[in-house]
Structures are given as C-alpha cells and as structure tokens.
Amino acid sequence: MNLPRFIAQRIQKTNTTTFTSTVTKIGVSSIAIGLAVMIISFSILIGFKQTIRDKLFSLSSHIQVSKITLNQSFEETPMIINTKFYQNYRKNPEIRHVQAVANKAGLLKSDEEHSGIVLKGVGRDYDWANFKENLIEGRPINFRDTTYSDEIIISKKIANQLKIKISDKVLIYFIQNPPRIRPVKVVGIYDTGLEEFDKNFIIGDLALVQRMNDWDKNTAGHYEIFLKNFDHLDLAAKNVFDEIDQDMQLVKVTEMFPAIFDWLGLMDRNIIVIIALILLVASFNMISVLLVMMMERTPMIGLLKALGTDNIRIRQIFVYNGLTIILKGMIYGNIIGIGFCFLQKIYKIIPLDSESYYMSYVPISFDWLTIIILNIVTVLLVLAVITIPTLVVSRMKLIESLKFKS
C-alpha cells in the first residue's frame, strides 16, 4: 500500500470544517481561473491573428513579385504573365496558388460625389474563395471572352462615401495622357475592416487595366503568390527568389505591411507577460495552501515522525494533496475556458469596434496543441513549486510537533 497516498486521501475526505478546506477551495479556484484565462487569452490571440491575416490575404498575398523599378506610384511596370516561374509554380510544394493582377490609379465618380481609388484588375485565375468572406453584398465579377468586363466591386466605405449601391452605374476617370473615362457597374460591395484597403481599392477586370495601359493580354503588373503555410514564408520567399527572372523583385507581406505585423508581434509579447504573471500568482497561492495545510496538520506530522515515518514520505503526503488540488483546478479551468470559447465562437457574445480592431466581434480560434501544452506547463510548474513548502517538514522537531495545537 502507498502510505502517503492513503493518508492524503483520508485528509481530503475529512468532513470537519477547517480553515484548510477554505484555503483549498481558494487554491482550486486560483488554478481554475488561471488556466481558464490562459486558454481564453491564447484562443483570442490566435483567432485575432488569424482573422487579421485572412483579411490581409483577401486583398493581398503572402508574396508579391513585380518588375524591378524605381517607380513609387500605383502605375506599374508591365511584365509578361507566362514566365517560366508562372508555368512551373505548381511544382513548388510551398506554393498554393499564383495569380496575375495589375493596379491602376483613377477617380471614381458618382452622380453626387467622387473619390480617388486604385483599380485592382484581376483575371480568371483570381482566387475568389478568400475574398468571398468579405463580400457583404452582390457577387463576383463575370468575365467576358471578347472584351473587358465593365463590372466592379467596391468597398462599403467607398459606397457610403459616394452614396452608391448595387447595380448603380458610375464613371472611372483614368488620369493619363490622353485621359480616359470608362462607365462601370457596381455588382458587389466588400468590407475587410482594414482602412488601408477599404478606402482605396476596388476590384475590376484585368482586361480593363490592360486596355487602359495599351498592354496585350499576356501582360500584368505583378504576381500574387499564396502559400500553403504562412509559417514557411521566409523559406518560400527564398525559393521563389531563386526561380524568378533577374529583372524581377520580390516583396513579402511582412514588408508590405510592417506596422500590422509589428503590432501582432507586440501582442505576442504582452500575452507571454500576462501568462507568466498568472502562473506566478497561481504558484504562490498553492504554496500558501500547502503551508496552511501543514500548519493545521502539525500534530499529525509529529505523530508520523514518532512512528518512524521519514521526512520524504511525509512530504509526499502534502505533494499528493497539492496534486489533487491542481488536477481539480485544471478540470474546472478547462471546462470554463473551453466552454467560454465555444460560446463566443458560436454566439459572438462580446462585440468589438470594427474601426479600431478591424473586426466586429472577439474572434476565437482553437489550437488544441496549445491548450494541451498550457495544461502540461501548468501542472509541471505548479507541481515543482509546491515541493518547496514541503521542505518545512524536515525542520519540524518531533517534541514541538506533538505539543502543537491547531
């Protein structure tokens, strides 16, 4: 029979109301609340980062490849679409999709208002799957076989500014020599919540940009490259750079939007500090719980010593008690944390200001590996810490322990 474990179980089943029972409940609550907060924090952090990235990649890409140029405007230097890289990109295991697009600056005018815009011309190879999540009204563009499509998709911000809606006809003024004007029809309205996109970009046909720039059908402004795994961005960028032509340049999304990714990195550091503080508080609470338990059980410790029980076995009794408290707290913590995340994910209980946070509700993303790691780290750290107060057992003298009255 495992004597320390047996005595620990008997102590836990004691029905008398003592100060220890109250402190034990506090210890369980501390572990439960700490673990629940960590699960919720990481689920929100991962969900927030994933949502921001998805919004970025709905109108941008992981990697952008274009001609080397000193031009800093939205007018792009033409490049041939069917390069060797474009024809062979499917052989690269890191790349999910490549599409040819072109940007062109212009002025969008309705009957009442006008606004400077950037027309993003897309072709039949455009991946609408990611973009459709931002499409709040209307439909994607229908392409034509013989000429360019006169359909466009605008942002909600531009639609409100110009007071236009689905099916309205508007004019695009292209400021060039000679200036050109084209009537277009609004068939969709999108909303990413990212002001940098929403206030500038509209989606149109690549063939329209080609016509305005006097390009042929095998010409675009740049490639947009999407990866299978964003975490492999640096490695994939290096491989792509080795495959593209010498007169082309490569830009990663982290270089295109450094402020956003610096902000996300700052959030990672803040969460780590918060988690460290939570674990520190939980550890100190457990130390306090065990010290109180040992103070109340001092006569029992003295009796066990008188019967010949060594200090290691007596310490194991309180370690078993501490482990029980930790496991109870972890069960409650997982129920509270995962339960709250499920409710938020399904019912979107907590809203957000979309203008400040780029989304209308607190996002949740479950990473079960992270949750498992949090549980393992919690039990190992707190279990290691609670061995410290049990060292008091070794310093307790037999006679004083037997005389002690709680």
TrEMBL record:
GO terms for cellular component: plasma membrane protein complex. One of its GO terms (biological process) is lipoprotein localization to outer membrane. Residues 272-397 form the ABC3 transporter permease C-terminal domain. Pfam families: FtsX, MacB_PCD. It is a multi-pass membrane protein. InterPro entries: ABC3_permease_C, Lipoprotein-release_system, MacB_PCD. Residues 28-212 form the MacB-like periplasmic core domain. Its main location: membrane. It is found in: Cell membrane. The keyword Protease does not apply. Keywords: Cell membrane, Membrane, Transmembrane, Transmembrane helix. The keyword Transmembrane applies. The chain crosses the membrane at residues 26-48, 271-295, 368-393. Belongs to the ABC-4 integral membrane protein family. LolC/E subfamily. This is ABC transporter permease. It comes from Emticicia aquatilis.
